[in-house]
Specification:
Elements: E1 2-6, E2 9-16, E3 20-25, H1 36-42, E4 46-51, H2 68-81, E5 87-92, H3 94-105, E6 110-116, H4 125-141, H5 144-154, H6 158-169, H7 173-184, H8 190-195, E7 200-205, H9 213-222, E8 227-231, H10 238-241, H11 243-250
Parallel strand pairs: 3-4, 3-5, 5-6, 6-7, 7-8
Antiparallel strand pairs: 1-2, 2-4
Helix pairs in contact: 1-11, 2-3, 4-7, 5-6
The structure holds D-malate.
Length: about 250
């Protein structure tokens, strides 16, 4: 991994493959390694940029509150450093929220947007409250609380569960707390999405227990030209459960 100081923070990233640039943004509370299997299937087609969002993986943590826009700014500054002006961006779940914030703020830099197991909607009030409660629990008891609550919802496949659980357990509390609060405060992006002029792609497992497939279908209904791929039998981690199907869907961004 390489590290670049952007916006005063050390942001780590991996770059692999050749072709048009595509950034793969990880979900919560994970890091870029969740994309490894799918990246191997995409590297003949794309110049892949795989960042660790602030706090996660090998990127530095930030103790003061931040928002989706700040994470989007980190990605924009990373791309500035890499001298990449325009890029396709695919975000998984929380990574999709960051990708949406990036696309809203920097639409001229976006060649295509993929939301993988993600959504445009903001949190309902009870979900938002739950995030703050979880943040408090993580502060008191550590990230195991989140790993315990999330693992079975991410996938029903035992090997996927153990792979993602190991990623979750190596994240640090301040990153998990910061991201929970940033997710709680994110805005509804439905109106923004409808106005995007670049290609929008939705990839969703029809058995996603964390963000139901209806949320992906909602995005498709907001952007009539969007391309929706529903992966049969996939849960919240299609890039690990069905890497070939996920990679094939993402190749539309070429
Ligand atoms: C994720 O998988 O990134 C998050 O769980 C999404 C969310 O909690 O909204």
């Amino acid at each position: 991994m390489k590290t670049i100081k952007v916006n005063g923070i050390e942001i780590a990233y991996t770059r692999r493959g050749t072709g048009n640039p595509l950034m793969l943004v990880h979900g919560f509370p994970l890091d870029h390694t969740m994309w490894n299997e799918t990246a191997a299937l995409l590297e003949d087609d794309f110049d892949l940029i795989l960042p660790d969002l602030r706090g996660f993986g090998e990127s530095a943590t930030v103790e003061t509150p931040y928002f989706m826009n700040d994470m989007a700014d980190d990605l924009a500054a990373l791309l500035d450093n890499l001298k990449i002006n325009e890029i396709a961006i695919a975000g998984h779940s929380m990574g999709g929220y960051v990708a949406l914030a990036f696309a809203k703020k920097y639409p001229h830099r976006v060649k295509g947007l993929a939301l993988v197991a993600s959504q445009a909607a903001a949190d309902a009030p009870d979900r938002r409250e739950g995030r703050y409660k979880t943040a408090q629990d993580v502060a008191e008891k550590g990230v195991g609380v989140v790993a315990d609550a999330m693992t079975s919802k991410l996938s029903t496949m035992a090997e996927v569960q153990s792979f993602v659980r190991a990623i979750m357990e190596r994240q640090i509390p301040s990153a998990v707390i910061g991201a929970l609060k940033a997710m709680a405060e994110r805005e509804d992006m439905s109106a923004t999405l409808a106005a995007f002029s670049f290609p929008v792609l939705v990839v969703h497992g029809d058995e996603d227990a964390l963000i139901p497939v209806d949320r992906g279908r909602e995005v498709k209904s907001l952007v009539l030209a969007a391309h929706l791929t529903e992966i049969q039998g996939a849960g919240h981690m299609p890039m690990l459960e069905f890497p070939k199907e996920t990679a094939a869907a993402l190749k539309i961004l070429k």
